[in-house]
């Protein structure tokens, strides 16, 4: 349709848009039903916080919180509710979920990004990331049955079967299969890794760290092949890419992290959570240093979060983009098509 | 120095010692890591398409292009031919490089031809152009209730575009040449 019509005016004469937005509301209601049936408590945690998370490459929205008496506090909008959810795990809540708005500044406004978006996070105490793989595939399949009448859906002209269990592959297997590179050896010897990647006709730049080199080849050769026809659970990421995850028992080159790919989109990101306080502090300090090096404010370490991580039972947690899930289940070409007020309608130049 | 924020489908860059057209680009945030820009680049000499992942903010080597106003003459199997409005010289541009823009070219159409070292690489068309609809199936009753508010029509160049169901054969319509979308009925 015409890109110049703001979304809120599309409702009247764009039945396809109307159907999508109605389905979106139904999906969000069905997500609540899914988790309630599994004994999860819905937690409501703040979106305006003092410590927004330390991921070196995210830009939180910053603001100043003013109290009536003139006291002022530096504040940020959350990029994810992770810190609050882990404090609740430490408090003793065994199964929690939250559907919340998250905010990330400085990102592109493209087909799959909006600066303000809806995320569902859920956490299970006394479980590892394998339990979350099962939750993810069951959730997607149940929603597909309710909205599309079955697990076989069509997304952008291609059929995808969401029926569980979804195929699983480790990151190392995917790198080996699609780019012919030995990732395990690469993690042990980053210089060797760089030359292996270069040898595949994939140039790197002098300032690239291990993760940069990894993503240059991964985004070119591997990711486009993932989640075609069937969703894929990609698991066991290099340890440098999982500051909040537990390392894999028996092979500490990798962390227990997975992502699910479906229809060319990355749907979620999940971990067996790190629950070692001192190790958490060390990783946060590393990330704070990297943030400063990249010219970003470090927001200070949330001491209560570090305390909570140390007290948490072994747990697993996951963040899943609700807008992208809705796009998938309603065959929407862009994230714009599943929002009433995309940023590009609100902020114009 | 230009960087990845300057990437667009209209620019040419030097990459691996060749001039490449940016065919497609996409920002990617893999989560816990830097942002990247995934690109598809087409080498203008060899026609070969390569893929490369740039880090967001990384320097790119933009190729400076000169613009000459020319008139579209005709095409054959391999090339589109243009005439320079000042020198009356003729230039050929391969159909491969013109790509989908060829669907907007009708005889006599003015276009800015983008040149590098006297070699024409691409063309730049006015953002909106008017075309006659040469073929349009009448709207099928029930189309609106199924959610289809657009239908396919053929314009005088032979290209097919999506237009509202009320558009009929013989009408003049305005098309956005950047995305191929219908804009409005041409005013008479």
Task: Work out the helix count of chain A.
Answer: 12
- Structural class of chain B, please? mainly beta
Helix content of chain B: under 10%
User: What is the arithmetic mean of pLDDT of chain B?
Assistant: 87
* Helical fraction of chain A: 25-40%
Structural class estimated from helices and strands of chain A: alpha+beta
Order of helices and strands of chain B: EEEEEEEEHEEEEEEE
Name the quaternary structure: heterodimer
- Low-confidence spans of chain B: pLDDT under 50, at least 5 residues? none
Q: Give me the number of helical elements of chain B.
A: 1
Poorly predicted runs of 5 or more residues of chain A: none
- Gyration radius of chain A, rounded: 21 Å
The strand count of chain B comes to 15
Strand proportion of chain A, as a percent range, falls in: 15-25%
Instruction: Tell me the overall shape of chain B.
Output: globular
Topology at a glance:
The complex is a heterodimer of chains A (349) and B (188).
Chain A: H1 10-13, H2 15-37, E1 41-42, E2 48-49, E3 62-66, E4 72-77, H3 82-91, E5 95-103, E6 116-125, H4 129-148, E7 152-155, E8 158-161, E9 168-170, H5 171-179, H6 183-188, H7 190-199, H8 210-222, E10 232-238, E11 254-262, E12 265-272, H9 277-293, H10 303-311, E13 315-321, H11 322-330, H12 343-346
Parallel strand pairs in A: 1-5, 9-10
Antiparallel strand pairs in A: 2-4, 3-4, 5-6, 6-13, 7-8, 10-11, 11-12, 12-13
Chain B: E1 12-15, E2 18-28, E3 36-43, E4 49-55, E5 61-62, E6 66-75, E7 79-84, E8 90-94, H1 95-98, E9 110-116, E10 119-124, E11 128-136, E12 150-155, E13 160-164, E14 172-176, E15 182-185
Antiparallel strand pairs in B: 1-2, 1-5, 2-3, 3-4, 6-7, 6-9, 7-8, 9-10, 11-12, 11-14, 12-13, 14-15
